[in-house]
Amino acid sequence: KSQPSHEVGVVMYSPQIDSSSEASLSLLTELRAAVAQDQLRLYLQPKIAMASGEVVGAEALVRWQHPQRGMIPPMQFIPFAEQTGFIRELTGWMIERCSMRYAELQRQGVELKFAINLSTRDLLDQHLPTKMERLFARGGVQPQALCLEITESAIMDDPARALQTLQRLHAMGLRLSIDDFGTGYSSLAYLKRLPLHELKIDRSFVMAMETDRADLKIVRSTIDLAHNLGLTVCAEGVENAQTWALLKALHCDEAQGYLMGKPMPEADFADWLLDWTAPQARLRTEFAPFV
Ligand code: C2E
Ligand code: MG
Ligand code: MG
Ligand code: MG
């Protein structure tokens, strides 16, 4: 097998990178430079309350604006960032950016919850709650406005330690969500002990639920499971109106997907929000006499 080239794109596609290899050192150097040279971008995707149609939050998703390769999606560097531990720096950057954008939106009169993705390494970082406290002390976003999305596998990596970190974050007032629910290995015995607010149904189930009866059943039972545990449930990957209607009929609380809004550069979010809200408000006034 040939050595991976030191070029970023090639390295990023190979799942097993020897962390001591020249190629991986070079990618790590590039990632560090990405932060130092301001090449990371915060994208935001709206989360919609299904009953009211209102935007209730935004998920923060990272992109890498590479000087030669253009916009690189997270799946091409997040796994590497996790392997090398660089993810902690990346998560720090995301939280910082979210805090600034939150404050900016607040100045414009918009109050939304921000959801940030955490990885295993973040959960194992015992200083994470303290780092967060320091950030909140500086102003900007407050813990009640933040939701942390964690996958089942990230928790199951070291459940005892994850539980400890999550309990501290919960005590600080942050909301916790299980991301991509149904795709990882998890144990309901652990899940029930976690101080959770939300389950997110993985888009692989949602996208096929109209045509695949098994997926429909999985989505329905996940919604029921979440509600029985007192959790809010959010469906990802809503791409068409039929899926929206189906989820609404199943009493899914929130939805995210291309049908409503794709992830967009953080600076575009306020304008998108106006476009979303204005027609709704208009409809409400026009139909008010009839309802
Ligand atoms: P995720 O947290 O499950 O995020 C949802 C992914 O689904 C996003 O992909 C989003 O663009 C995509 N998506 C949303 N709606 C639709 C839809 O209707 N159809 C389709 N086909 N896709 C949809 P993205 O931005 O490429 O992110 C992929 C994954 O990378 C995320 O999955 C998350 O696990 C990870 N990720 C992204 N940003 C970060 C970050 O800042 N930190 C960490 N640790 N992970 C991140
Ligand atoms: Mg997520
Ligand atoms: Mg997800
Ligand atoms: Mg996902």
UniProtKB/TrEMBL annotation:
Per UniProt, the keywords (alphabetical) are: Membrane, Transmembrane, Transmembrane helix
Keyword Transmembrane helix present in the record's keywords: the answer is yes
- Start and end residues of each EAL domain: 24-277
Superkingdom of source: Bacteria
State what protein this is by name: EAL domain-containing protein
